[in-house]
Automatic annotation (TrEMBL):
<dbReference type="Pfam" id="PF18318">
    <property type="entry name" value="Gln-synt_C-ter"/>
</dbReference>
<feature type="domain" description="GS beta-grasp">
    <location>
        <begin position="85"/>
        <end position="177"/>
    </location>
</feature>
<dbReference type="Pfam" id="PF12437">
    <property type="entry name" value="GSIII_N"/>
</dbReference>
<feature type="region of interest" description="Disordered">
    <location>
        <begin position="431"/>
        <end position="460"/>
    </location>
</feature>
<dbReference type="InterPro" id="IPR040577">
    <property type="entry name" value="Gln-synt_C"/>
</dbReference>
<comment type="similarity">
    <text>Belongs to the glutamine synthetase family.</text>
</comment>
<dbReference type="InterPro" id="IPR022147">
    <property type="entry name" value="GSIII_N"/>
</dbReference>
<dbReference type="InterPro" id="IPR052725">
    <property type="entry name" value="GS_Type-3"/>
</dbReference>
<keyword id="KW-0436">Ligase</keyword>
<dbReference type="InterPro" id="IPR008146">
    <property type="entry name" value="Gln_synth_cat_dom"/>
</dbReference>
<dbReference type="GO" id="GO:0004356">
    <property type="term" value="F:glutamine synthetase activity"/>
</dbReference>
<dbReference type="InterPro" id="IPR014746">
    <property type="entry name" value="Gln_synth/guanido_kin_cat_dom"/>
</dbReference>
<dbReference type="Pfam" id="PF00120">
    <property type="entry name" value="Gln-synt_C"/>
</dbReference>
<dbReference type="InterPro" id="IPR008147">
    <property type="entry name" value="Gln_synt_N"/>
</dbReference>
<dbReference type="InterPro" id="IPR027303">
    <property type="entry name" value="Gln_synth_gly_rich_site"/>
</dbReference>
<protein>
    <submittedName>
        <fullName>Glutamine synthetase catalytic region</fullName>
        <ecNumber>6.3.1.2</ecNumber>
    </submittedName>
</protein>
<feature type="domain" description="GS catalytic">
    <location>
        <begin position="182"/>
        <end position="612"/>
    </location>
</feature>
Length: 705
């Protein structure tokens, strides 16, 4: 028998089962205990300084440098009280993960040491930036980059086995001020959208209020037993299985989705949630997803900058806690072929003051604002579909988009029947059908109540209105939430400005008739983006083409949106990214894509050569020997079986050869060669004796945990 595979199964089968917890009162007093939040600030800071800091955070104004020293001191005392000996500026470079370089608070003093942390330590850091991808923004000899404190995302503590570190969320820039990270453009896009929202709301006679963009990021992931994972170089090197035959049973029975959660997984989820709650991350929903071994965690929505930081911590926490349970959390978009991949649904909305602009209103005034926002978003998404598609590019997500499990690569908006009906009435100014009573007249009519329940859902749409928010479903599970929201904020800012510019020319008397005309024009010109049907069908692909909607199938094509002049002009106009920053992101993403494909190609070749091939050779020679013995004894023999192994072996050799050549060429060739190699390996998996097969199989990884 294949010892390691079997031993893993045996160990899992005989692992102790945890006892059911005796009844005891639940307690969530620890919520937020590892966050330097308003409560902690009030405890550790003098009142006047605390007020100044809270105002900075609330109004997004610049920090008064004279209070930095006191804030740093308070933060250090707070962190030390919780066991921290180190601090780090925590940032999000263009690698897509987070980065941290720890420094201790230690300062030697007279043979002993004191713990010190200055205002400067808090506000700026100077990590050596030369080894982070910058896409040519900064050549390596000008290695200096700096991190700058983002007071709008609170400092927090990360704990490990025997210590703790104070983490300070920061933006990461070059010395010339160019953004080298994912946070800076997000903060800039928020400023842009705040300004445009205020301008629009001023047209509606609203006083100055704070604009808040909200995000709820639903995170899908897989969990598999670490004992299998460690036997799969493709998984631990590329994050996905490059080989693996589809098992007889996978997700066709629909018996995993929302099924009862196995206790090992529930224990894991409980621990994840506890850790997240300590960090003030409002983890709310947990459930089994569609594929076997696939799960989801959804937090309550929060302000988008905080939510983006929190999603990075969610991913890290999932991985860390999984390890404690002998599990591995796979965040790759497509760890297993043949079953669903993982996405990250981006629930986006915006409020002005306390009012959510995407909440259908109760009175005619609110309706007018709501319909203006909906039309603005139609305009934005239709005009800039290429930018939204770009945010989902990546070697992993290429396996998912358009694969009839995730939204297609064609961007469209789902509004649901009733809201679509309202929009059509708005366009025509007359009742379209008997569904609604009267014509939609802005400023005097109210909206019919719009359904907000889960039945009115269309899972095949990439961009769906879901009651009081839009759910962008194309982003991949491993991706940072930053890009989709940078783009959404920027394109909606532009749409709001486009509308405001026209509204500002109207006088009070004809405001509503004028607004109606503006929105009618938008609907006429952009209703092609609306689609309530099944996005997985071939008809939609054809229909979308007829409508002139782009169908951008691959990442490499999608990334080009970053280099288009009109897109660069848009981002420059809103101060979100300049040309150099846009082009650098193009370069970084293209390079990332190429490297990943190349790494996968090399792994595929190596595994085929030195893991699969020896097993096939052994199976083949055994079959040949048995065949010979059988023939000697006058039995019919195993000729057919031995032959199929021999033929498979030869095709495998040929496919390895193709791979070898492909590795010297372009990525398309490598992708094709991986597919060819996989076909051969997966075919062999089905005929090589189970006991000789060297890799854990799909039926094991997806079902035994
Ligand atoms: P469902 O689970 O049916 O998709 P939910 O209403 O539970 O829908 O929402 C899913 C996600 O959307 C959650 O993370 C939730 O917090 C988030 N969400 C709800 N309202 C908003 C909002 N106004 N802005 C941003 N996200 C929101
Ligand atoms: Mg959902």
């Amino acid at each position: 028998m294949n010892n390691s595979r079997n031993k893993a199964i045996y160990d899992i089968a005989t692992a102790p089962v945890s006892a059911v917890m005796p009844a005891a009162p639940a307690n969530v007093n620890f919520y937020g205990e590892d966050v330097f939040n308003a409560d902690a600030m009030r405890t550790y800071l003098p009142k006047d300084i605390c007020e100044k800091l809270l105002a900075t955070i609330d109004e997004g104004v610049a920090l008064d440098p004279s209070i930095a020293g006191d804030v740093a001191h308070a933060m250090k005392r707070w962190a030390m009280d919780r066991g921290a000996t180190h601090f780090t500026h925590w940032f999000q470079p263009l690698t897509g993960s987070t980065a941290e370089k720890h420094d201790s608070f230690i300062e030697p003093s007279g043979g002993k040491a004191i713990m010190a942390f200055s205002g400067k330590n808090l506000i700026v850091g100077e990590p050596d930036a030369s080894s982070f991808p910058s896409g040519g923004l900064r050549s390596t000899f000008e290695a200096r980059g700096y991190t700058a404190w983002d007071p709008t995302s609170p400092a927090f503590i990360k704990r490990h086995g025997n210590g703790a570190t104070l983490c300070i969320p920061t933006a990461f820039c070059s010395y010339t001020g160019e953004a080298l990270d994912k946070k800076t453009p997000l903060l800039r896009s928020l400023q842009a959208l705040s300004k445009s929202t205020r301008r629009l709301m001023t047209c509606f006679k609203a006083g100055p209020k704070k604009t808040t963009v909200t995000l709820g990021a639903e995170q899908e992931y897989f969990l598999i037993d670490k004992r299998f994972y460690l036997q799969r170089p493709d998984l631990y090197q590329a994050g996905r299985t490059i080989f693996g035959a589809t098992p007889a049973k996978h997700q066709q029975m629909n018996d995993h989705y929302f099924g009862s959660i196995p206790s090992r997984i529930l224990n894991f989820m409980n621990d994840v949630e506890k850790e997240l709650w300590k960090l003030g991350i409002p983890a709310k929903t947990r459930h089994n997803e569609v594929a076997p071994a696939q799960f989801e965690l959804a937090p309550l929505f929060e302000e988008v900058n905080l939510a983006c930081d929190h999603n990075m911590l969610v991913m890290e926490t999932l991985r860390n806690v999984a390890d404690r349970y002998g599990l591995v959390c796979l965040l790759h978009e497509k760890p297993f072929a043949g079953v669903n991949g993982s996405g990250k649904h981006n629930n986006w909305s915006l409020s002005y003051g306390k009012g959510n602009l995407l909440n259908p209103g109760k009175d005619p005034h609110q309706n007018a604002v709501f319909l203006t926002a909906i039309c603005a978003i139609m305009y934005a998404v239709d005009t800039h579909a290429d930018l939204l598609r770009m945010t989902c590019a990546g070697a992993g997500n290429d396996h998912r988009l358009g694969a009839h499990e995730a939204p297609p690569a064609i961007i469209s908006i789902y509004l649901g029947d009733q809201l679509t009906d309202v929009i059509e009435q708005l366009e025509q100014g007359v009742p379209k059908s008997s569904k609604q009573a009267g014509a939609m007249k802005l400023g005097s009519d109210t909206l019919p109540p719009l359904p907000r329940d889960a039945t009115d859902r269309n899972r095949t749409s990439p961009f769906a209105f879901t009651g009081n928010k839009f759910e962008f479903r194309a982003p991949g599970s491993s991706q940072s939430c930053s890009e989709p929201n940078v783009v959404l904020n920027t394109i909606v800012a532009e749409a709001f400005d486009m509308i405001s510019e026209q509204l500002e020319k109207l006088d009070d008397k004809n405001f509503h008739t004028g607004l109606q005309k503006i929105l009618q024009k938008i609907v006429k010109e952009h209703k092609r983006i609306l689609y309530n049907g099944n996005g997985y069908t071939e008809e939609w692909v054809k229909e979308a083409e007829k409508r002139g909607l782009p169908n951008i199938r691959t990442s490499m094509e999608a990334l080009k949106a970053l280099t288009k002049d009109e897109n660069i002009a848009l981002f420059e106009k809103y101060g979100v990214m300049n040309r150099a920053e846009m082009v650098s992101r193009y370069e970084v993403n293209v390079e990332d894509y190429h490297k990943r494909i190349h790494i996968e190609g090399e792994i595929a070749r190596d595994m085929a050569k030195n893991i699969i091939m020896p097993a096939v050779v052994e199976a083949y020679s055994k079959a040949l020997k048995t065949n010979e013995m059988a023939l000697n004894q006058g039995f019919p023999g195993l000729d057919g079986y031995a032959k199929s192994l021999g033929e498979g072996m030869n095709r495998l050799l040929a496919a390895i050869d193709v791979m070898e050549k492909a590795l010297g060429g372009l990525h398309e060739g490598i992708v094709d060669a991986i597919a060819t190699l996989r076909k051969e390996v997966d075919g062999l998996e089905k005929i090589v004796p189970n006991e000789l097969w060297p890799l854990p199989k799909y039926r094991e990884m997806l079902f035994i945990y």
